[in-house]
Amino acid sequence: MHQIHHYLNGSIVQGRSGRFAPVYNPATGEQSAQVDLASADETREAVRVAHDAFAGWSKVTPLKRSRILFKFKALVEAHADELARLIASEHGKVFSDAKGEVTRGLEVVEFACGIPHLQKGEHSMNVGTGVDSYSMMQPLGVCAGISPFNFPAMVPMWMFPIALACGNTFVMKPSEKDPSTSNRLAELLQEAGLPDGVFNVVNGDKESVDVLLTDERVQAVSFVGSTPIAEYIYATASAHGKRVQALGGAKNHMVIMPDADLDQAVGALMGAAYGSAGERCMAISVAVPVGEETASRLREKLVAELGKLRVGPGLVDGPDNDMGPLITREHLEKVKGYIQAGADEGAELVVDGRDASIEGDGFFLGGSLFDHVTPGMRIHREEIFGPVLAIARAASFDDAVKMINDHEFGNGTAIFTRDGDAARQYCEQIQVGMVGVNVPIPVPMAFHSFGGWKRSLFGPLHMHGPDGVRFNTRMKTITQRWPSGIREETNHFTMPTH
Ligand code: NAD
After folding, report:
1. pLDDT band at 359 (very low <50, low <70, confident <90, very high)
2. Taking CB atoms and a 6 Å cutoff, what residues make up the pocket around ligand 1?
3. Hey, which end of the chain has fewer CB within 10 Å, N or C?
4. Options 113, 143, 166, 281, the catalytic residue
């Protein structure tokens, strides 16, 4: 059985805890590997290595750090196909989608290459007579990243490139369900010239996460995953004095106005709802057509498109499938349970993905479509994280906005319309962190920041972009005066007002 170990101080290191987790090929249902689960002591060892490396790395000039990231970018590009195959084999998503996530991660590396400019700080001359003031954006120390299964390359790359560029060292704890990509990225960082110990990978579960949340040498924790765990991460790490950004779950709605180009909206909706088998935090899981006529036309077109959905393995010889399997058998059963719950609660199950027959024991499920879903139902309240789209009809624009604003989550949303005024009202009123206008999955580019509102994000700062630089640095402001001919006449006992 293939073994997946940790990556510490520039080498692959075998775990010593005797604890393992299975890694599956979701397309066949077979276990393909087992990954070491670090003990608390092994995790502390990774933190120590990163802590020891900080003194040296933080003194490397921003320009030299940036040059290493430029080399890393070139290496990731050269190995993009290999990384995408690795992702597809452990996660299950189709090859082109896996390659897309590598590209989106690379964009953050490209942004981080600009660190000499991004970390310049601010300067003011003569804030008082003969007095200058400037701010420095200094690195924090050891930063930790804890990532979910659904983007094994992109989400770690939301976190570590900016942290490293800012002069921090890093301990990455990837999802135990598809851990191999992080180790491969660690090898490529080393090949790019990153000094040993600056980037480390600890594979593990709650035992190692708890060390990262509480060890006093860890300064900052970036987390992406489900809301209950995000909340726990935020509460625990904050209570231990760390700065935290913890991104959680989602339930993303797409409003379709009566004037929308319906073919465009349906095309966008199909990819946004069923792409990556719905296992995206920015997936659209609720379509909100405004008005009965819009709803009927939308439903008819969706049913027709669902009939053409190609479900199958992520790695095939010919053209890619549209959608691969789910991550584990357990998750497959959970999503099937939601489909049953929706039907039991009285939603109309228009297309039942459980009917799809795909050969073999892979964790496959066809695309499902519900109509007449209402806010009280579990399939509207909870994140399903599978290929299940709900149509929740709204009588008016205001009803649609209220339905979304009343929801627990506020990660992403979209409106499809030709009416600029409706779009503008929507952008202003909606209580969601990322909004698309005729764009179904409005993931901000690397040079903007990514983050939801409400219970989709805990902590003040979003990920990557300008917030990423703020999160990974600590500002220090210097006010200085040098002896000169200017002499104060008297002592000052009151606040200086210059
Ligand atoms: P998860 O919360 O189960 O796991 C995320 C990470 O937390 C993993 O590394 C896991 O090992 C660790 N973990 C799990 N249980 C833990 C515990 N009790 N204590 C400490 N650590 C624990 O999430 P997942 O199933 O891997 O990923 C899917 C979730 O991630 C979905 O809810 C999805 O919406 C969310 N997600 C959110 C975003 C976003 O940007 N908001 C992006 C991607 C995924």
Report:
1. confident
2. 146-151, 155, 173, 175-176, 205-206, 209, 224-226, 229, 247-250, 281, 383, 385, 411, 452, 456
3. C
4. 281
Ligand 1 centroid, distance to 357 Cα (angstroms):
29
Give the pTM: 0.96
Specify whether the CB–CB gap between 243 and 168 falls below 8 A.
Answer: no
Q: Is 280 exposed, middle or buried (0-12, 13-18, 19+ CB in 10 A)?
A: buried
Q: 288 CA to middle of ligand 1, Å?
A: 27
- Annotation marks residue 281 as catalytic: yes
Shortest-distance Cα residue to atom 30 of ligand 1? 225
Q: Are residues 179 and 298 in the same domain?
A: no
Residues 176 and 305 placed together within one structural domain of the fold: no
Identify whether residues 314 and 178 lie together within a single domain. Answer: no
What is the residue range of 34's domain? 2-248+456-478
Residue 450 lies in a domain: no
CA–CA separation, 165 and 294 (whole Å): 49
Counting DSSP H helices and E strands in the chain, the numbers are 16, 23
CA 232 – ligand 1 centroid, Å? 11
Q: Give residue 134's Cα distance to chain centre.
A: 34
Residues 117 and 189 in one domain: yes
Atom of ligand 1 nearest to the CA of 383: 32
From the CA of 205, how far away is ligand 1's center (Å)? 11
Q: Whose CA is nearest to atom 31 of ligand 1?
A: 226
Same domain, 346 and 472: no
Centre of ligand 1 to C-alpha 18, Å, is 24
Measure the CA–CA gap between 369 and 354, rounded to whole angstroms: 11
CATH of residue 315's domain is: 3.40.309.10
Q: Which helix (H) or strand (E) holds 50?
A: helix 40-57
Residues 278, 386 contacting (CB under 8 angstroms): yes
Judge if 210 and 309 occupy the same domain.
no
Does 220 map to a domain?
Answer: yes
Atom of ligand 1 nearest to the CA of 151: 43
Model confidence over 63-73: pLDDT tens digits? Answer: 999 999 999 99
The answer to whether residue 491 is domain-embedded is no
Q: Is residue 448 part of a domain?
A: no
Predicted confidence (pLDDT) per residue in 274-322, tens digit: 999 999 999 999 999 999 999 999 999 999 999 999 999 999 998 999 9
Alpha helices in 58-112 (DSSP H): 62-78, 80-91, 95-112
Burial tier of 405 (Cβ tally within 10 Å: 0-12, 13-18, 19+): middle
